[in-house]
Amino acid sequence: MDVDTVLTAESYDAAVNAAGCVIEAIKDVMEGKGRNAFCVVRPAGHHAGPQGASEAMVEQGSKTRSHGFCLLSNVAIGAAHAMANRLAARVAIVDFDVHHGNGTEEVIRNLKPWRYKHVADTPLGEVAFDTLAEGPWLTERDSENVFFCSIHGFGEYSTGSPYTGLFYPGLGGATEEPNILNIPLGPKFGTQDFRREKLLPRLHSFKPDLVLVSAGFDGHEADFMNYGLVSLTEDDFFWVTDKLCEVAEVTCGGKLVSILEGGYNTNGGPLSPLARRFICFSPPLLCLSSSTLDLLSPPHASPACPRTCELC
């Protein structure tokens, strides 16, 4: 489809199944069949916009459109299903993949009705007509009832990277709007900046009925896809998941569905960096006891990974 997104005969089925998994998880959580859920799906979806490829910027002033390995916006489809079927009136989406969730943001921005003009040359002269673009999922006030936050790497590729220019997708500079919050990370940001208190107060004040998490693990210091731009640890992933679960507990009875986005270092199988991140990400969702965590934790797990969590 583009330079970084390829298709096979099974790609469509895989994408539909991934989105369907998210829908089923949301239905189960909202109907009380489960406290929360983690959808381990591929392909990822947060770079897919309302018309497929979403806007990206490879260099300052040089815009393009790219799918970024994504075919369908799993998290946006899940949010749309929840609102259209009145399972939730207010949905919060938090994306902590190392790459900005530009596709998800495009979807959210297109919830507000807008029109664009077509101009065509005919033998009788120029003809112009308006077309209604992507509209709301349920009502014209949908944009007021969806909150989106992306915490991601932002800046230029580091020295030694095979790429130059802006870190993909080159968008997502610091943004604070009523329903959109972008928190950029980079070499000048330490791990504590990842934990800034901008997000949590906004989530609490928004009071969602459902929290959706685009969980990307490619910001980890051992994942090659961030090319050294950020260096998050297992402790960071535990912290953000734990805090999101706390917000969900207070605002919507713990209703939270997490969807896998990036995370590519699988070298070592069950001992890989991605597997270790899953172990540190899961306790707040599963409320595992410390003894269970000791059984699951790989023998060479990072000491930063907490081994205990309070029972919910």
UniProtKB/TrEMBL annotation:
<dbReference type="InterPro" id="IPR037138">
    <property type="entry name" value="His_deacetylse_dom_sf"/>
</dbReference>
<dbReference type="GO" id="GO:0004407">
    <property type="term" value="F:histone deacetylase activity"/>
</dbReference>
<dbReference type="GO" id="GO:0000118">
    <property type="term" value="C:histone deacetylase complex"/>
</dbReference>
<dbReference type="InterPro" id="IPR000286">
    <property type="entry name" value="HDACs"/>
</dbReference>
<dbReference type="Pfam" id="PF00850">
    <property type="entry name" value="Hist_deacetyl"/>
</dbReference>
<dbReference type="GO" id="GO:0005737">
    <property type="term" value="C:cytoplasm"/>
</dbReference>
<dbReference type="InterPro" id="IPR023696">
    <property type="entry name" value="Ureohydrolase_dom_sf"/>
</dbReference>
<protein>
    <recommendedName>
        <fullName>Histone deacetylase domain-containing protein</fullName>
    </recommendedName>
</protein>
<dbReference type="GO" id="GO:0040029">
    <property type="term" value="P:epigenetic regulation of gene expression"/>
</dbReference>
<dbReference type="InterPro" id="IPR023801">
    <property type="entry name" value="His_deacetylse_dom"/>
</dbReference>
<feature type="domain" description="Histone deacetylase">
    <location>
        <begin position="3"/>
        <end position="267"/>
    </location>
</feature>
